[in-house]
Design brief:
about 350 residues; alpha/beta; Metallo-beta-lactamase, Chain A; Rossmann fold; seven-stranded mixed sheet; six-stranded mixed sheet; binds zinc ion
Length: about 350
């Protein structure tokens, strides 16, 4: 086993490093800067070069963060480690490990759909593929991004006609930037609230060109008289005082889990949902796994059982491997499980 699950995270004993550890360690190799994959407190971080700015923003200026260009191996105690684009968010990587003729790839989070804010997923041939499974059920089938952007623009237009500010709730790292890139910025003023602003300068520094939203101060939002669209993290849906300060609003949540009834029920106060995710859907996952040419697949981070059954039917060796990564926006995989179980 080139990688095993330990109390601190996925550990490569041969190279003496961890991948996306959930506890602080000496040497952390990081797939991407989402909070559940990039935990603070480790002595040293190594990540794909385009993600260095995001990781520094997450970890603070004191953290030791080293970047490695995509595709260029680096030697860690005799293990050749290389990063390949995962298509999930800016700088996200699959991590390829080669040791004594055996090749493992740890996928991190990934998607195959187009996203102008990050480099596209590339299949990396390997013996063992360790894959995420956030949306690994056949019910998860994403529509093309252009279709979703069209739906959101249409919703924004209707809100403008009704004099209501559009509050679009989406994860602040990755999804917010993908929406900025895809929405029609000519339609009206774009605002961003709090955490939705946090990573924008790191994207700009990495050369990702996006419309620049203005801070969602209540007086500026009200002055736009319902023409504006505010990007905000999902938690802001529970901030009644903030929402109330904006004048008339319409709220919508962007997430992959919107497709599942259990998530919709929990989001009762949110008026609209758009099914859109920075994770692969069922077809994306199965396509990526087949493209890896792996003979053994290790599954974690989501719908492990469902994907494992399907892979074994296709003739793969497939096993679960335990990790502590959260679902999309923290809880959605759990909700999907509950729904699948008839809850
Ligand atoms: Zn992620
Ligand atoms: Zn994740």
């Amino acid at each position: 086993m080139l990688i095993e699950s330990t109390s601190h995270g996925l550990y490569c004993e041969a190279g003496d490093f961890f991948i996306d550890p959930w506890e602080p360690v000496d040497r952390a190799v990081i797939t991407h800067a989402h909070a559940d994959h990039a935990v603070a407190g480790s002595e040293a971080y190594l990540t794909a070069e385009p993600g260095v700015g995001l990781l520094r923003e997450r970890m603070g200026a004191a953290a030791y963060v080293q970047g490695q260009p995509y595709g260029e191996p680096i030697d860690l105690n005799g293990v050749a480690v290389a990063f390949f684009p995962a298509g999930h968010i800016l700088g996200s990587a699959q991590i390829r490990l080669e040791f004594q003729g055996e090749v493992w790839v740890v996928s991190g989070d990934y998607k195959l759909a187009t996203d102008p804010t990050c480099e596209p997923f590339v299949p990396v041939p390997c013996d063992v593929f360790l894959t995420e499974a956030t949306f690994a059920m056949p019910v998860f089938q994403w529509r093309r991004p252009q279709v979703i952007f069209g739906q959101i623009d249409e919703w924004w237009l209707r809100n403008q006609a009704a004099g209501r500010t559009s509050v679009l709730l989406a994860d602040g790292l990755g999804m917010t930037q993908r929406l900025l890139a895809g929405l029609d910025a000519e339609m009206g003023p774009l605002f961003a609230q709090g955490a939705a602003r946090r990573f924008l300068s790191a994207y700009a520094a990495a050369g990702v060109e996006l419309p620049v939203p203005v801070p969602a101060a209540a007086d500026a939002v009200r002055a736009a008289q319902g023409r504006g669209l505010i990007l905000a993290p999902p938690a802001m849906a529970e901030d009644a005082a903030w929402l109330g300060s904006l004048g008339p609003v319409s709220t919508a949540l962007v997430s992959g889990g919107m497709q599942v009834l259990g998530v919709r029920r929990r989001q009762r106060d949110i008026e609209r949902g758009f099914v859109f995710s920075d994770h692969a859907d069922w077809n994306g996952l199965t396509t990526a796994i087949q493209a890896s040419e792996a003979r053994h697949v290790l599954i974690t981070h989501g719908q492990v059982e469902e994907l494992g059954r399907w892979l074994r039917r296709q003739g793969f060796a497939a096993d679960a491997i335990a990790t502590k990564y959260a679902g999309e926006m923290g809880s959605e995989a759990t909700d999907a499980e509950a729904t699948a179980a008839g809850a």
